[in-house]
Write a structure and sequence with these properties.
The structure is a homodimer. In chain A, strand 13 (about 180-185), helix 6 and strand 14 form a beta-alpha-beta unit. With about 325 residues, the first copy, chain A, is of the alpha/beta class. In chain A, the strands form four sheets. In chain A, strands 3, 5, 6, 10, 11, 19 and 20 form a seven-stranded mixed sheet that branches. Chain A has a six-stranded parallel sheet with strand order 14-13-12-15-16-18, with helices on both faces. Chain A has a three-stranded antiparallel sheet with strand order 2-1-4, with helices on one face. Chain A has helices at about 35-40, 85-90, 130-135, 135-150, 165-175, 185-195, 220-230, 250-255, 270-280, 295-305, and strands at about 1-5, 10-15, 25-35, 50, 55-60, 70-75, 80, 100, 105, 115, 120-125, 155-160, 180-185, 200, 210-215, 230-240, 245-250, 260-265, 285-290, 310-315. The radius of gyration of chain A is 19 Å and the shape is globular. The longest helix of chain A is centred in the middle third of the chain and has 13 residues, at about 135-150. Chain A is built from ten helices and 20 strands. Chain A folds into two domains: about 1-135 and about 285-315, Quinone Oxidoreductase, Chain A, domain 1 (Alpha-Beta Complex); about 140-265, NAD(P)-binding Rossmann-like Domain (Rossmann fold), CATH 3.40.50.720. The interface between A and B is large, with 38 and 38 residues. Strand 18 (about 260-265) of chain A pairs antiparallel with strand 18 of chain B, so a sheet runs across the interface.
């Protein structure tokens, strides 16, 4: 099969179709999305080499569960061992021996086929198009925040970052509270949110401090500093940014103000699928370009361009 | 009255007895403790100048509440305005206009007299000696953790730091769980905890990772890095260290592991007084030396010595 393989550089190669292990399904990929994590992996993050890609929709070709075969599915990316301490503590997403689709020890979705445990799969509703269904995984990461922090409609929320993840987070938290503002550097990206009715502020403009919750989805080390300035005493900062290098932080203010910081990673698929199916989140304007898998090398280069948002691959 | 005044350097001076404002009591100080914050203030922290000292026990000499007059009391150090946004949100300890005894806008306890709002005062039980009662304020700061983080007897807790605050925290959290270890650099300080039955580990020795809660009370910037290594995924790090300079932190691990950080400052006096009164916390071994107020300049110099723990002043 054709697959985009990262081995120091990304190359479209012909490699064997992956073999499904017991409990796994073989999935023919229909479409996949390029994530900033894919770009970071190429800068050495996680030290991963192999087929990249973890946002996808596909058709189950083979599996033990005959109900699933032939169905269109999306899939959770963390594959736990079910035996380690954290698996036994019901924290499979933090399994010590986990593989992660296209990120850690498991060939990813920029290929014609992938394998995943059947338990990781969710049906893609008929009304959700392929190019929308690929957003399930990053949208689930946005919904993760609602599992970690109680946000009510009286809370004031600031989302820092107008990129792909920031936009999804702003849309998800907008479902919880209308007292929300998204802060970003790019006028055209902020306009996309404003067209949905979400308030935005340009990053260089003044902003009222004292927010109950601030989410750092800037993707850079300065985001958390800004979040510390903006959050109220005893407020919460959600950390979504993963940068490979250390960040210099003045920590006495967060101690004196008794701020809570919460790291936040992958999230629940069910509310993400529901939101896409019900139209509560609008992702189509975020799709900048789509390429055939044969053009995957070009697509990866395009994804580096700050002038684009989501780049999709069709297999 | 005599008072130890910081104005670029600390000097014992003769200054007027402070005047009590409406709602305040005038308190004759019996004894006061020197805290690391007092030393940091002299390095420029908070930009405070004036009489230092915020750990004290004293006798109410004047006040509107006749019940209090003549009573021996300890006092909470944050004096809120009762009018700002955070006061109205029931967070007086984060009042925007607060004064803080001996730290911000209010003359402190290294003096013969101080004033505090009557509402800040708590009776010192008869069975609690002066040199024990002065520990109420730092002990309350240790108890603050139990208001912020649920710790049950099945939780594994690591306290980083064997200094004055680390010891109080270890003793307080030991009341919650016996699955606790205090990590420190000083054999003699760790021995003090071991004599109370609390497990300790020398900082350069290996330590099992995966703790549910790690408290950083090291007082230096490296503590939080160690805490990140030691805490389990979805675990909690309590931040007690305030250092004036920025700390370089690798933040992608705490995001991936979804760690929670909680800043923690001043705490509730009631459980602290109870613990001192009931003997659930043992502070007397922590008293290294005691000086008369006339020797306060010497006492402050002695407090800088890493070979001492608590230095007391008697007025």
């Amino acid at each position: 099969m054709r697959a985009l393989v990262y081995e120091g550089e990304v190359r479209l190669k012909d490699i064997p179709v992956p073999k499904r292990a017991p409990g796994e399904a073989l999935i023919k990929v229909l479409a996949a999305g390029i994530c900033n994590t894919d770009l970071e992996l190429r800068r050495g993050y996680m030290g991963y080499r192999g087929v990249q890609g973890h946002e996808f929709v596909g058709i189950v070709e083979e599996g033990r569960n005959s109900f699933l075969v032939g169905k269109r599915v999306v899939g959770e990316i963390n594959c736990p061992c079910h035996q380690c301490h954290y698996c036994r503590m019901e924290m499979p997403q933090h399994c010590l021996n986990r593989t992660v689709l296209g990120i850690q020890g498991r060939q990813g979705a920029f290929a014609e086929y992938l394998t995943l445990p059947e338990e990781n799969l969710h049906l893609a509703p008929a009304g959700v198009r392929d190019d929308v269904a690929v957003f399930t995984e990053p949208l689930a990461a946005a919904f993760r925040i609602t599992e970690q922090v109680v946000i009510t409609n009286s809370d004031r929320v600031i989302v820092l970052g107008d990129g792909k993840l920031g936009q999804l987070i702003a849309q998800v938290l907008w479902l919880q509270t209308k007292n929300l503002v998204c802060v970003g550097k790019h006028r055209w990206k902020l306009t996309m949110l404003e067209e949905l009715g979400i308030k935005t502020v340009q990053a260089d403009q003044p902003l009222e401090r004292g927010a109950d919750v601030v989410v750092d989805a800037t993707g850079n080390g300065q985001g958390i500093e800004r979040a510390i300035e903006l959050v109220r005493p005893e407020g919460t900062i959600v950390m979504k940014t993963t940068v490979a290098h250390p960040t210099a932080l003045e920590l006495s203010l967060p101690v004196v103000n008794e701020i809570t910081f919460v790291g936040s990673r992958c999230g629940p698929f069910r509310p993400a699928i529901e939101a896409l199916s019900l139209g509560n989140v609008e992702v189509r304007p975020m799709i900048s370009e789509a390429y055939d898998l044969s053009m995957a090398e070009t697509a990866m280069r395009r994804a580096e361009d700050p002038g684009v948002m989501k780049i999709l691959l069709h297999m």
